Fold these 2 entries.
Entry 1:
Amino acid sequence: MHMTWSSRFPLVALLAVTTATACGKDSGSDGGDDSSSGSTGTTASTTDSSASTTVSTSATTATTATTATTATDSGTADSSSSAEGSSSTTDAPPACGDGNLDDGEICDDGNDIEGDGCNNDCVESGSTQWSALWDGPVGGVDWFDGASFTAQGDVLVTGGVEIVADAWDLVVVRYDGAGTLVWDTSIDGPDPDNAESGNDTGRRVAELGDGTLRVAGSQDSGGNRRPYLGALSSDGDESWAQLGGGEPGRATALALAGDGTAYVGISGTVGGRILAWSGDGAPQWSATIPGNDVACMVACARPRALLLTDDGLFAGGTRTPLAGDPDAFLALYDDAGNEQWIVDVAAAPTNQEIIELALLGDGSVLALVAIDGYQDHELRTFDAEGNEVGATVDLELGDDTFAVSMVLVPGDAVVIGGYIIPSPGTNEAWIGRYDLDGTERWKHSLPGEAPTTSTYFSHLAFDGTARVAAAGAVFDPMNQSVADAWVLVFAP
Ligand SMILES: [Ca+2]
Ligand SMILES: [Ca+2]
Ligand SMILES: [Ca+2]
Ligand SMILES: [Ca+2]
């Protein structure tokens, strides 16, 4: 069932992870439809050209938001009144963390341990704060592939919206902190929308310090898929757009610097790349990630995660060696795009990939690594020279359980999300919290939106304090024409 689905629905190419064995089959969630670009992109130039785009607003026709009900305080839990009654001092006012369930608190366990069931802000660990479905104007196959928080706590998501049958536009949606839709916008690329072309999709969206947004994705141009970077105002108006030249490819990752520089990871038909654009959209540099295998037709190298630190720009992903299956790689680039080093990680005779990177407090870099053909997962830590430091942590995520995204949260822990395949053709999204030593704090499936609905999981974002956003889509495997983008905000 799902193979038919994935042939026309690029995001569900994720399911191919379980069976892909070689680079040519493109084992990961990214670039699965790069093959549709063909091998006609022979231009060696990496000169970027301005994208001619049209923007239409208010693509949405139906949006639903569900807000978790706030527990009502019974008012009987606080029994702190002094029995003696002889004290001249008044009792401390009710507060989160005092061990008593007070007004406005879902729970209060009186400790300062996060993720143990009751978090330090008195909400239940792993509990849903709000969720929303988003449907496009024709009720087609729509999805979210990337999420982030703004400085003020709004949630940004980007993905694809089906405009005509089998042709998509890039969509960006902004929700406020309570899950109310603020605006949505769809962005069309240069090619006409039809079953052969005109596919434009967003992969990542993030806010700069000045409140403007950057969106990384892809647009079809001249029949080839091109990496797209767009600048949007805080209201969603596109102010400029750039398409990466060179070989066809699509954005897989985005990192923003304080000066507005945008670094975009590209999965292409020949090799992976990283492109850098200045804050005003001027091309800065392009770096190629060697794939090492001339016979590799699709996505020989794929930078799946980018992480900007004081040491430079880290890139992690997968690449195919001269012989054998893809290896996970980690690389470091300076601010001029010069590769400082590149190392293969967890080399073994099966597929490996770095799924996500995070900066630890001591300056080292934490990597979530899929190993054994995506059947198992590890946490590994690296210093700025690419040396592995500390112990490799084997994550016990469960059978047929795949990790897709990870965020670092306070309390020396990570939240990981992904999907489980309980039966062929069915996806069940899951989220969980793990200490850095691999101890599971909580893990659960996401609530289904309908009995026949399967859930596609794409990305996690952390707001820096107490909320995590998850993005994806829900679809009905029995009725492939029904799919809506989905976003959920929960407490870690
Ligand atoms: Ca309390
Ligand atoms: Ca606690
Ligand atoms: Ca389009
Ligand atoms: Ca839809």
Entry 2:
Amino acid sequence: MKEKENKKKSLKRFLLGRAKDVVLLYLATHYRPLLKFVSSKPSEVSIKVTQRCNSRCITCNEWKEKPENELTTKEIEDIFHQIKSLGVEIVGFTGGEPLLRNDIGELIEKAKKITGARVYIITNGILLPERAKTLMEKGIDYVSVSIDGLPETDTKIRGIPRHYDRAIEGIKILRSVSKDLKINVGTTVLKPNIKEIPQLVEICHNLKVNWFFNLLDTSLYFFQGVNIDGLLIDDEKTIDEFIDYLYLINKEKPDVFMSNMSPIVLEFARDYLKNKKPKLNCVIGYFRVFVDSNLNIYSGCWALPPIGNLKEEGLKEIIKSKKYKERVKKMFDLKCPTCTCGYILSCSLNNLPSTALFALKDPKFVRFEH
Ligand SMILES: C[S@@+](CC[C@H](N)C(=O)[O-])C[C@H]1O[C@@H](n2cnc3c(N)ncnc32)[C@H](O)[C@@H]1O
Ligand code: SF4
Ligand code: SF4
């Protein structure tokens, strides 16, 4: 019930606040001069609250780096105050591993109180059994837990024995405290785990949590240079079977996905996995802002360099600046290394009429989380 009301509220806020920009962005994909009428008004700010990581994932470099810096509680609180004046609807905590922070509960509480936004966290789940109750008590709205296969495969990819068990244990605690909390399991689809996905989806379904997939990326600064030998799916038949399976799940068990997957999104995934990079205008810069552990600001893109720093300028000032506007246009034109971040949003906006038709049939498609 509460979830339904929240969804309605979000839809209303979205339509009132961003409908004009959404339509203009779509039109700009056909007639670019219209881009100058679109405002960069982020609805989501994601903060890298730590660079530390307790995992050893073979797909990611974060754990290999020696963290240079970590934001203090006070610095993050200052960011919340700056976010407040922007009318942001979603604040996310990512890392590194955000649950490594002992003040994570305090951060969630303050984020909600100061910004009024909904708050989510992306975690590897290793510390979830210890932290689950705190997250709930402090009012977290959405938890995404990364699991990369059934136990044996997950251990190979994540590099930590019992990662799978701990993540599942944490999810069970969250679910036992609240049946309404949005919980998602995120899996990066790889050669070693693609065939296990139906079993993993079944497990998620039984745990009453959603499941979603990431597409392997090597462009974001913390994924660059990872060794992808043996990770790419080189067999087209396996890819087709996987995508066809997702179509089937969409139909038969629509509750598995937080938002039903439109054919546009699934076909993008099929092409991407087959190494065909479909050309899309990237619209992420118009919706998301990222902050890293050095107070650098990114225009919703971890693959391009930062566009400002909060030690030198305010968040609003950066977002309203000419350089920011130029950057989001550059992103729109795909003058970038390209990546799979936010591809659902870009796919949907580049194909707005068919997305709208799909969403009319199934309002669940309107997706608000990361
Ligand atoms: C960088 S992690 C940060 C949050 C947390 N440490 C975690 O693992 O969930 C964010 C997400 O990126 C996913 N990921 C890791 N390596 C990736 C890669 N090379 N391409 C795409 N997604 C990746 C992770 O599985 C996780 O779901
Ligand atoms: S994906 Fe997450 S858990 Fe894995 S190394 Fe990267 S930051 Fe750490
Ligand atoms: S597609 Fe390009 S501009 Fe968009 S987020 Fe990825 S790297 Fe950045």
